[in-house]
Write a structure and sequence with these properties.
Blueprint lengths: L10 E5 L2 E5 L7 E2 L8 E5 L13 E6 L11 E6 L4 E6 L4 E5 L4 E5 L6 H19 L3 E10 L2 E6 L6 H10 L4 E9 L7 E2 L5 E4 L1 H8 L15 E4 L12 E9 L10 E4 L2 H9 L10 H17 L1 E6 L7 H18 L1
Parallel strand pairs: 2-4, 4-9, 11-16, 16-18
Antiparallel strand pairs: 1-2, 1-3, 5-6, 6-7, 7-8, 8-9, 10-11, 10-12, 13-16, 14-15, 17-18
Length: 335
């Protein structure tokens, strides 16, 4: 591993099934045993080895449709040097370069941002892209452990994936991962790898869970989103990978006395739901897209993929937890 600092400056972590060596502290990650021979190197406030001047080939592959107040796209991704490197540029000035094999990430940012701000991107979409370059399929999901198996929740933004996982965490179920659920295992079996030990929550979710929007700390001083630390305050974090047991697709909340309701999806419908809820799918090439389709096809054909319709208001999450837990335990008994 090439280093730009002394060995005392490097930190070892384990996340998403990878041994990570980082040139600084990364929040919410489990400490690893050694920085030697890592699977992934993360260099903070470091310049990537880019060719200078006219020698750098650039090919835009993604431009966010969302823009900031100045009209700049929130994110731009470029393929550099014929795919040897990929650059992520965000509207706030934070930038990442990922090598084509998903083995090295360089991060740089201007003031006043801190590593906590940088980590919101790094431990989400950027690391998900690195995993995808390594051939690892990643769901845009939250996951917890029930009966020694992983259960994942997928759905559109605002569906309540993280809130449901946090509710289950407060009831004693171990957190597997939030936002990115990496599926890696031997012999092609879907196994959920532990991610960061934090669940990200909006203040209204914190209000529903704890009675006050300020009950949990902010992710960063510049962002109103909060986090639940699964290693503290009676919560548990799942430190080893678990076989994936089921995926629950969260539908739009509705006000109806018959809710929450659970519906088992066919293999075809389940596959469509899974494909629509993967991480970094808009950046995949043909090879990684084929790997993803094969992995998700196995899940849809062999595991439970269910649509869940939650009830309004958000306080109805307790009943939703009961429905999910009962379904997981009943399906395990039948198996």
């Amino acid at each position: 591993m090439r280093r730009q600092a002394s060995s005392r400056d490097w930190h070892a972590y384990t996340v998403f099934g990878l041994r990570v060596a980082a040139s600084g502290v990364l929040p919410g990650l489990r400490a690893g045993s050694t920085v030697a021979d890592p699977d992934l190197v993360v260099e903070l406030q470091a310049a990537a080895p880019l060719p200078r001047g006219e020698g750098l080939e650039r090919e835009p592959i993604y431009r966010s449709p969302d823009v900031d107040d100045a009209g700049r796209p929130m994110a731009v991704v470029e393929r550099l040097d014929a795919g040897r490197l990929f650059r992520f540029r965000y509207a706030d000035g934070i930038e990442f370069v990922v090598d084509g094999g998903g083995r090295h990430i360089w991060a740089a940012w201007p003031e006043p941002w801190t590593v906590d701000d940088v980590a919101t991107y790094l431990l989400g979409s950027v690391m998900a892209f690195a995993l995808r370059r390594r051939g690892i399929t990643c769901l845009h999901a939250s996951a917890v452990a029930i009966d020694e198996r992983a259960v994942a929740f997928i759905g559109p933004a605002g569906a309540g994936k993280s809130t449901l996982a946090a509710t289950l965490a407060t009831r004693g179920y171990a957190v597997v991962s939030d936002d990115v659920v990496a599926l890696g295992g031997a012999h092609g079996e879907p196994v959920a790898q532990p991610g960061p030990s934090r669940i990200r929550l909006w203040p209204e979710s914190v209000q529903a869970l704890y009675g006050s929007p300020d009950a949990l700390p902010r992710l960063t001083p510049t962002w109103d989103k909060r986090f639940l630390d699964a290693t503290q305050d009676g919560c548990r974090f799942q430190e080893r990978p678990l076989p994936l047991a089921a995926v629950y697709v969260l539908d739009e909340r509705r006000a109806h006395p018959a809710l929450p309701r659970l519906e088992l999806l066919s293999a075809a419908a389940g596959l469509m739901a899974l494909v629509a809820n993967t991480q970094a799918s808009h950046l995949l090439d043909a090879r990684t897209r084929a790997q993803e389709f094969h992995c998700l096809g196995r899940i849809a054909a062999s595991l439970r993929v269910c649509r869940v319709t939650p009830s309004e208001p958000i306080a109805g999450l307790s009943a939703l937890c009961d429905v999910v837990i009962e379904d997981v335990l009943e399906s395990a008994a039948h198996v």
